[in-house]
Amino acid sequence: MKTIVFFITVLLNALSTGFFFAWSVSVILGTNKIGHLNYLETMQNINREILNPVFFIVFFGSLIALGITTYLQFNNKTVFVLVLASTIIYLIGTFGVTAFGNVPLNNELEALTITNLKAIELKSFRTYYESAWNHFHSIRTISSIVSFILLLISIFIQKTF
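RESULT FIELD:
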């Protein structure tokens, strides 16, 4: 049971990390090349579509699985510490930053009727939104990667004891 839960935890965490990493090296680069109105429309559409069961299973499932794995590894102190660190980093740096950084920005964007904005307003909001959103995204991406690396290290340590 512990092995299956650990496997699911690593898989979900890897999928979450891969999602954030892929976004950083593709979507952000692509959206840098489009105009303000197109950028804001694109981000509104992405923010609506991301709210789907598959994303929720990966994003929330990773956090839940990390918590369960942390609990299950309590008797293996070295692995427990690594998995606990992975959980805390994911909780604060990935989940927390998303919930309290990216999501409020997405809600601000959703509240806008961007087709009613003048060109200067589009540029101004995009500059504000994109800068803050990408900053938070970088934090959650790095946090997710560190969380995943800690899980990988814990696998190797678990096999050596």
